[in-house]
Amino acid sequence: MSRIDEAREMFARIEQAWSDGERTALLTITQVKGSAYRLPGAKMMMTEKGKMLGTLSGGCLESDLYGWAEKAIEEGKPRLVHYDLSESELWSLGIGCKGTMEVAIFPVHSSDPFWQSVREAVAQDRVISLAIELPTGVRVAFEGTNPIAGDRDALPEVVAQQLMQRVWSRTRAEVAVVDGRRFYVDTMRPSERLIICGAGHDAVPVAALAAKCGFRVTVLDPRKEFNGTGRFPAAEHLVVEPDQADPAQLSASWWVIMNHLQLRDEAALRLALQAHPKFVGVLGPVSRTQEMLSNIGADFDSGPIHAPIGLDIGAETIDEVAVSIVSELLAVRSGRLGESLHGREKIHG
């Protein structure tokens, strides 16, 4: 799986380039062995005139990649580029990563119905899966398990069926070998929704940072003077008391409860647990959360409750607390423990 918000930004910029009369290419990491700056599924875009958005290597390989992107755009055919950063002094100098990386470069033309379908699905925040054969470029886009665009007729039925199973079950972009053929498979799922209960001053940096990290943020607070675009420009706004909100409309969300008013926090906690949450983080001491749970007839086994929310980084200021809170959100989203990387041989392993 790759971040749909990154893909959305790429296609928005690609569409702008089309409006400017420029041809474009989408670049994505398809395979990594050893250490690399980013994982498979990472994307960037380039135009024929050298405009770029995103990065695959932190700026070390992009100028070389642009040369290959120019050729792919001119030829109208995908290209595979391999970098061995462990052996080449030229490339490993200053990069700090000693692995190998494969990058696929796909020309993205405004007249291509395949990429138009992908762009539309990404813009509408729909689940979209790609299966692209390497290096031929035979490609199919799936919505769920239904092919919606591409070269479905070019694939034998057994290959198509295996690809459908692959794209739907995998959590990371990868290269899959199906019937002796190499396919880059990547499923882009909608961004996770984060409900922040409370529009106090300390919620402002939490909302801003979470939005930058790919969450779709909604602020739930009945106070109009606090819960608005002036303080939370990157969020949606639910200006009601928690007990007036419909849990069915907020299902499968992530929650951060930080009202600083116990009765409102209890109502928010009750609402979150009714909404089949993926994560419920509560600000404040664990004893306070235990009391609130008892008051609403629940306990720590009633849902995925994290209290106190945040990683232990010694946070004191509201910005530091926001980093602590969002760091835990990212760790849980990625299935990580939120530990120090110090001494690890592999960063992404």
First-to-last CA distance: 16 Å
Average pLDDT value?
90
Number of domains: 2
- Main sheet properties: 6 strands, mixed
Low-confidence regions: 89-93
Count of DSSP E strands? Answer: 17
Give your account of this protein's structure.
The chain is α/β, with parallel strands linked by helices and about 350 residues long. It contains nine helices and 17 strands. The strands form three sheets. Strands 1, 7, 8, 9, 10 and 11 form a six-stranded mixed β-sheet that branches. Helix 6 runs parallel beside helix 9 (about 320-335). It comes from Kyrpidia spormannii. This is Xanthine dehydrogenase. InterPro entries: MoCofactor_Util/Proc, XdhC_CoxI, XdhC_Rossmann_dom.
What would the keywords be for this entry?
single chain; 349 residues; alpha/beta; Rossmann fold; 2 domains; 6-stranded mixed beta sheet; 6-stranded parallel beta sheet; 17 strands; XdhC_CoxI; XdhC_Rossmann_dom; MoCofactor_Util/Proc; Xanthine dehydrogenase
